[in-house]
């Protein structure tokens, strides 16, 4: 299954409830075996008309949906809006506000605020296992940018003064910055050209 690359593709892809359920099943149960969240049994049957699973062992809460035990539980908002909001939060480099989610999904700002907070809580890494530098006990954040270098077109003495017209661009230089969270040290420089 290809992941959506743009917001428009995400809205179209997640508008189908079957795509939403298939995506969440692949994330929640990567081995493909759906298990009952109450008893842990894998003897479950999918009821496609109601989009729920029925556990074959007799106990309370033997029917469950994909929302049970997740951040989507107890939410009246559909999975199409939830997964599109998750896509927005995950693909926004500078973060996304609840107002932007509200405008993009056509929901109230209060609902968007609750959704964004739940999504951020689910995306947080408490243990630090998957962060760069976590094995040293000092997580590191890395970012990149490209700086353009201008080329002088004149060799006259007045060339040292800034001209009214922009000069042509020669090339762009990659720059990398690194920030160590706990020690608050920042380092920057140009990456090496060796592959």
Q: Please, could you describe this protein's structure?
A:
The chain has five helices and six strands; from the N terminus they run H-H-E-E-E-H-H-H-E-E-E. Helix 1 packs antiparallel against helix 3 and helix 3 crosses helix 5. The protein is of the alpha+beta class and about 200 residues long. The model has no long low-confidence stretch (mean pLDDT about 80). The strands form two sheets. It has a three-stranded antiparallel beta sheet with strand order 1-2-3, with no helix packed on it. The chain has a three-stranded antiparallel beta sheet with strand order 4-5-6, with no helix packed on it. It folds into two domains: about 120 residues, no CATH class; about 55 residues. The radius of gyration is 25 Å and the shape is elongated.
Overall number of structural domains: 2
Could you say which overall geometry the principal axes of the C-alpha atoms support? elongated
Q: Pick out the low-confidence regions.
A: none
Biggest β-sheet: count, sense, barrel?
A: 3 strands, antiparallel
Pattern of helices and strands: HHEEEHHHEEE
Helix-strand category: alpha+beta
Count, helices? 5
Using the CA coordinates, give the radius of gyration.
25 Å
Strand order of the largest sheet: 1-2-3
- Which percent range describes the beta-strand content? 15-25%
Mean pLDDT: 80
Separation of the first and last Cα atoms: 32 Å
């Amino acid at each position: 299954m290809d992941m959506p690359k743009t917001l428009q593709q995400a809205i179209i892809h997640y508008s189908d409830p079957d795509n939403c359920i298939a995506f969440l099943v692949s994330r929640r149960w990567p081995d493909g075996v759906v298990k009952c969240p109450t008893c842990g049994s894998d003897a479950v049957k999918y009821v496609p008309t109601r989009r729920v699973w029925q556990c074959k062992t007799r106990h309370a809460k033997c029917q469950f949906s994909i929302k049970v035990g997740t951040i989507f539980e107890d939410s009246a908002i559909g999975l199409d809006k939830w997964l599109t909001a998750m896509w927005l939060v995950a693909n926004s480099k500078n973060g996304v506000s609840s107002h932007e989610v509200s405008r993009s999904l056509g929901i109230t700002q209060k609902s968007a605020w609750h959704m964004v907070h739940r999504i951020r809580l689910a995306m947080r890494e408490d243990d630090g296992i998957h962060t760069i530098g976590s094995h040293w006990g000092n997580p590191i954040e890395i970012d990149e940018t490209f700086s353009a270098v201008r080329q002088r077109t004149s060799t006259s003495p007045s060339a040292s003064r800034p001209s009214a017209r922009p000069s042509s661009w020669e090339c762009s230089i990659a720059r990398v910055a690194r920030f160590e969270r706990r020690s608050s040290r920042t380092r920057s420089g140009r990456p090496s050209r060796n592959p």
